[in-house]
Fold each of these.
Amino acid sequence: MVDLWQGGVRLHCREYGGSGRPVLLLHGLAGHSGEWRRTAEALAGEYRVLALDLRGHGQSTRRPADVSRAAYVADVATVIRELGGGPVALVGQSFGAHTAMLTAAAHPDLVDRLVLVEGGVGGAGGASVEAVEGWLRSWPAPFATRADAERFFGGPPSAGAWVDGLEERADGLWPRFDVDILVDALRPVAAAEHWPDWERLTCPTLLVLGERGIIGAAEIAEMIARRPETRQVTIPAAGHDLHLERPDEWARVLARYLGTGTA
């Protein structure tokens, strides 16, 4: 575990080990760095695997003053420069995928391969933010027991990772985030489509989608049309949290792409 500082914000990173090329993993909204454990285990033999608690999440600063897209990009750039040891393979899921895309566009010298898991260019609109906020506020926190939390999150296979992100206190298990901060962070993602950033990318890019995911077919088609060299893989029977729902299939896809550049 390593703590870095960026603009007065503590950034908590997990180092999963390995001594090869660096891979940095970015979780989605309301997630945490620990959800990448199985991914890291699959890669650690050949790669140096790092995972970041994004600002406002996990053990990073809970209530940062700045939750702009630029702030998240600056955080990731800081981690790469201080821990990555050179250009990294940058992997992000959902909100983390959008952050990864913007980072690679702004800092092409820091990213040599990009993997977007259930991530697009943004611009879903205010209704999408309201839906996410409603879901986050529906969490019956504190959860009295781990079993209660697992039932709420739908049971195996992905519930365990969500529950692992909770903080144990005397009165139960609590989220390690504040809803208002996460909603403020999500608004700029939903407010605009970031096509110029997508087209500015220079590194090889892989889109990994769930068969039951939330990225629309029209958006995916446009992404491919604007950058035809982009590779795409769809994981059967998987939803938005495909790295948790189908961890073995996901890990095989990622390892193959990092190793060979083929999807």
Amino acid sequence: MLRFLPSTLAAAAIFTTQCTLSVSREWNITCEKHSSYGKNQILECSKLMVSFHQKATVGKLTGVYRKYNTSKYGNALRCEPASFLLEAWF
């Protein structure tokens, strides 16, 4: 993720969260205006975020998964990853 600018990470995080929580599957003109990023500019970063979310239960960083899977943090990792983002852009 270090290859992405912080502003790209922020925009991709918002888009990925919108998709994960089923708020929206679109990066609309308002999002583009406020972030100055088009959907094609954030898609790669969003896909990486989704793939990390899918792999959160295995590997070296399971402590992060356990922490955010508690009621103290709103059971944040109980949400299903937005796997459709890993497929072709619609």
Amino acid sequence: MRRSPVDLRAADEQDLLRRVAREDRAAFEEFYRRTSPWLVLRLRRRCADEQIVAEVLQETYLSVWRGAGAFVGATAGGWLWTIAARRLVDAFRREGRNTQAPTMGEEVAPPAEDLALADALSGDVGEALSSLAPELRQVLRAMVLDGLSVRETSVLLGIPEGTVKTRARRARLAMREAMS
């Protein structure tokens, strides 16, 4: 099934995925065109190795092409990121290496994700989140926003599982304290 580019430009990402599930190549190309720049940036925030980023990107979109029929009830971006984050964890396991999150000295400006999250969460929740230490925000971002398990978060951030659990607990306590 081939639709005109005009139809695809007007379609939202969820509709594009439904079309991809019906093997619409033009819809897949449009979905890739819209989402790949964002996804590459997000992957690069978690991995400095361009080869791994390229491989994960390719594996992610191959999974989208093959599994678009499984997309239901979520946002397209969230679904896409879940696939990509898991592929990145798999790549780290294959490579047998850990990543190091940027230290506070290396980070010149707050990550775009933190800024977007702060804009989306106003009031007490936004303030509480912004008051967290960067390492606590990283764990919350991976586990809550990206939907990763403790083990996947551990591999992604290059820290032991026990540290992930401790930071998640500290983040919850700090959020609770800041909001009371």
